[in-house]
Amino acid sequence: MDTITVTLHAHLKKKAGTDRVELQVPPGTTVSELKAVFLEQFPRLRPQLVNVVTLVNKNTFYLEHEALPPAAEVTFLPPIGGG
Question: How far apart are CA 10 and CA 15, in angstroms?
């Protein structure tokens, strides 16, 4: 199993009650699969998780189907309003 650290910001952090979560996932887990594991612990974040951008190891954006590297640090970035 790989340990993936998920970092949360803004309203995700507030609703989860934490800014960081460590999850155990099988090697080769995709972003989509990681979200499913995350939602087992934080089901009320499901509506917000649909619109996040996934940043891996602080510098690479990943799509839903992409496999995470071992010991990745994943940040779920919520949409930023403005205008």
Answer: 9
Residue type, 32: S
Please tell me the predicted confidence (pLDDT) of residue 79.
82
* Boundaries of every domain in the chain: 2-77
Tokens representing 59?
């510098």
- Cα dihedral 39, 48, 10, 27 in deg (nearest 10): 40
CATH class of 2-77: alpha beta
Collect all residues with Cβ–Cβ distance below 8 Å to 9 and sequence separation of at least 6.
19, 75, 76, 77, 78
Confidence check: pLDDT of 81 > 80: no
33 Cβ contact partners less than 8 Å away, ≥ 6 residues apart: 25
Question: 37-53, pLDDT tens digit by residue?
Answer: 999 999 999 999 999 99
